[in-house]
Predict the structure.
Amino acid sequence: MKRRDFLVMAAAGAALTGRAAEVAKERTTAVQKTPGGGDPRMRGPFPILSTPYLEDGAVDFESLGKGAAFVADSGCPGVIWCQSNDAVDLLTFEEKVKGVEACARAMEGKNAMLTFGCNGTIESMAKEAEAVEQIAAKYPKTNIAVISRPPDDGKTQDDIKAYYERLASIIKRPAIIQTYVNNTCPAPTVQLLIDLAKRYPKTFGYIKEESEGNRANERMIQEVAAKPIMHTVFSAWGGWQWLYQSRRCGSEGLVTERCAYAPLLAYIWRQMEDRDKKGTLTQAYALYRLLIDQRGMPGGLRGYSLYYFQRQGVFKTTVSRQYLKAKQGEQGTTAVGDNKKWKLEKLYLTDLQKAELDECYDDMLRFVREN
């Protein structure tokens, strides 16, 4: 390249940079969010809290309560437990009940919606829902909701309908319906979700839409179009496409096991609500994707997030219960065979990995603080 050509290119680049600096970003072209007609607290990022364990594999209930409070104090309007595989499958009923109470106690007086998972077969789901109601009565200063995935043994839409009708007969609070459970039970149809919301408007109408591929986006648009019968549609998928689904499909929150990044999730939500008035939404979302996509480091839904919780003084260990036989996937692990048998695993990171993770997390905290 000749020196003259280089200077011409440099001048053009400077001109473009200057032009970009002169033009303030207009507010996002996101779809307008019409009122959903439900509980106004059931919107925004609802991170799923990872279950903390002691070195011997026992549930660390003290850290569990601290984790719930951490998410709420970070500004997220909701926090969920126990909904991920490491909680739904690998905890006993007694451990779940004790954990629900530990979280309810820790969240007294906080604004966030403490949301408990009620799952399994129709009978196990009902048993868990009844326990939630009993504990909610003991802690009237804690805002409590539930989340429920379709029945583990469901085969038809009628099975799913009966399952959620049973849930509605027990609980006295909002319930998020998760659209995916396994490869054998179908997702509830959009029409079934609408019908349930019509029949039980104070309970249903809140959806965690996580169907596979672009089908989720298509369903989300249909669900949002059914407002105010439908109230809130949450994104999923770990936040992948959250920005797209919020701005183009109308989602109004996120359900994901990415609770270590609660300060940034809360910041992103505030910018979404303000239609990106500051012009920082793309940058914030890109930072979030960087934080959760450190390929090559111990991953999955827990992974190095446990290190962040330990670093923040929320968890005592980086121990996990893991399926005895497990298949590792992009969004976590699934059991191969018996999903009740487990072994202990501990997260190990090199000093170089810790240094990189520390810098990324500190950059996140600094970004949130300065913006």
Notes: Confidence is low (pLDDT under 50) at residues 6-10. The longest strand covers residues 113-117.
